[in-house]
Design a protein that fits this description.
11% strand; binds adenosine-5'-triphosphate; single chain; 11 strands; 4 domains; tRNA nucleotidyltransferase, A-adding; seven-stranded mixed sheet; Beta Polymerase, domain 2; 410 residues; 22 helices; alpha+beta; cca-adding enzyme, domain 2
């Protein structure tokens, strides 16, 4: 409708200049190429929700490759990557942002060296392949229709009513990642799943459709969830729905505590992950690790967490604690501190270690006359201990004890 179009034009007008510039370049390129072009997907959804948005996705009715090559001419600092096989192209900018161009014309080769077979579809088909109605809206960018909403599947109504609704009954069977996406979008916007969508979600979980999903794709979706502001509520839904049980094989002691909501805003992804598994026994954590493929830092921190938890169960001196914890990432120690078995011990250690204020290093020791070699490391360890135990409090005292050691032959 005309009113709707004016609303969208107003929303576009309020976008940051960089984005408006891109939209104009896309519009002008479409004019030049004589094809139809649309803004689609999450950007449209978030624009209508007045949500801060980032990634731009376009769909071209026509050849996406040709369109992208024409578009890049208008974007001197963009870098074009084409994926001819999938009919998509991506333009990345120096600040790390990017835009994606997909096309409704698919050219594929039935065997190497064959002439391309061209399959034409249209915007409607493209939008039908998407996950939920709220993600299947488009905004036309061609000059004459600039700002018109294309909404074949009732996306705007569902946005207004706060519903996550699939486009067809087989949606979760076709792509089980959509189950995780449904939960993520529902909690992110405080929406609920439409009745049939919710039923289909439960049916899909029970029918074991998650088995179709690779560990990589599952992990990717889970990490998307852990990056969300209200990931705790999402985690609870993953448990309540039985989805985690279906994937991991059993009901494990996941920790998604809504009481942490305020604090969790400042937690890194690694911290969030560690806290979520912190109530599990070590053998359970191992089982969980078999069902996700974590990046190096997450995996290492998880292993460190597990092994430190074992070590800390024995009585330890301050020095022994320091040897264990000195090089461990702060977030691991922070998560361990939340465990009431260790909180007193670790708080004492952290207080003591905060007093460490070493100014000496290998170089300054050599200047003071220490011979190069293993002695240097030993002295630095000793100095660290002296700080930790509160035997020295100032840089003067630090130098003092070192001079004393250096001058006293041992
Ligand atoms: P976010 O705000 O989390 O980035 P988004 O909707 O932009 O959300 P993307 O993963 O970037 O998410 O996907 C862009 C668009 O591609 C979606 O809006 C949706 O239309 C479509 N899409 C993404 N994943 C799927 C999927 N698994 N099945 C169907 N359509 C999908």
């Amino acid at each position: 409708s005309v009113a709707m179009r004016q609303d969208i034009l107003d929303l576009i007008e309020r976008l940051p200049e960089e984005i408006k510039t891109i939209l104009k370049a896309v519009r002008d390129t479409a004019e030049e190429e004589g094809c139809a072009v649309y803004l689609v997907g999450g950007f449209v959804r978030d624009l209508l929700l007045f949500f801060p948005t980032q990634d731009l996705d376009f769909v071209v009715e026509g050849s996406g490759g040709q369109f992208a090559r024409a578009l890049i001419q208008r974007m001197p600092d963009g870098k074009l990557t084409q994926h001819e096989k999938f009919g998509t192209a991506q333009i990345t900018f120096p600040d790390g942002s990017h835009l994606d161009v997909a096309s409704t014309r698919w050219e594929y080769y039935s065997f190497p060296g064959a002439l391309p077979q061209v399959e034409e579809s249209c915007l409607r088909d493209d939008l039908f392949r998407r996950d939920f109605t709220i993600n299947s809206m488009a905004i036309c960018l061609n000059t004459e229709h600039f700002g018109e909403l294309v909404d074949y599947y009732g996306g705007k109504r569902d946005l207004q009513q706060g519903k996550i609704r699939f486009l067809h009954n087989l949606s979760f069977i076709d792509d089980p990642t959509r189950m995780l996406r449904a939960i993520r979008f529902a909690e992110r916007y405080h929406f609920s799943l439409a009745k049939e969508t919710l039923e289909a979600l439960y049916t899909a979980i029970e029918s074991g459709v998650l088995a179709k999903l690779s560990v990589e794709r599952f992990t990717e979706e889970i990490l998307h969830i852990f990056k969300e502001i209200n990931y705790l509520a999402m985690g609870q839904t993953l448990i309540r729905s039985g989805l985690f049980k279906a994937w991991f094989g059993d009901d494990y002691a996941w920790n998604f505590n809504l009481e942490d909501e305020q604090d969790s805003a400042d937690w890194s992804l690694n911290t969030r992950w560690l806290i979520s598994i912190s109530d599990m026994d070590s053998p359970v954590i191992e089982k969980v690790l078999d069902r996700v493929i974590l990046n190096r830092s997450l995996r290492d921190e998880t292993m460190t967490f597990v092994s430190l938890r074992e070590s800390l169960s024995n009585p330890l001196s301050l020095n022994e604690m320091d040897a264990l914890l000195n090089k461990v990432p702060k977030e691991v120690v922070m998560v361990l501190t939340r465990d009431e078995r260790f909180s007193k011990l670790l708080t004492e250690y952290l207080e003591a270690s905060q007093k460490i204020n070493m100014s000496l290093n290998g170089k300054t020791l050599i200047q003071m006359g220490v011979k190069q070699g293993p002695e240097i490391g030993k002295i630095l360890d000793q100095v660290r201990r002296a700080w930790l135990q509160g035997r020295i409090h100032t840089l003067e005292e630090e130098k003092g004890i070192v001079r004393h050691w250096v001058d006293t032959p041992r």
